[in-house]
Amino acid sequence: DEWHRALGHLNYAAVRKLKTKNMVRGMKVNEQVSAHQCQAHIQPFPKESQRTYDKIGDMIYSDLWGKSHIRGIGGKSYFISFTD
């Protein structure tokens, strides 16, 4: 299903809920699709990284958090982190 893939393989119950609550205008959902048809749920998740990095800056992970309902210093609503 297009929306299931577009939303990062969000579970089908949540995709259907978006549709039934009209949270996305013009959203079309294939009601015949089941979770068993998604290949993402059966792919093994690697226990370790298959890559190695030798130098600082070779790989950077980032994460964005927010929008927070509580404002931070200076009225900020988001937090971003970077890990090298």
UniProtKB/TrEMBL annotation:
Highest taxon of source: Eukaryota
Pfam families membership: gag_pre-integrs
Record domain GAG-pre-integrase: where: 3-39
UniProt name for this protein: GAG-pre-integrase domain-containing protein
Species whose genome carries this gene: Lentinula detonsa
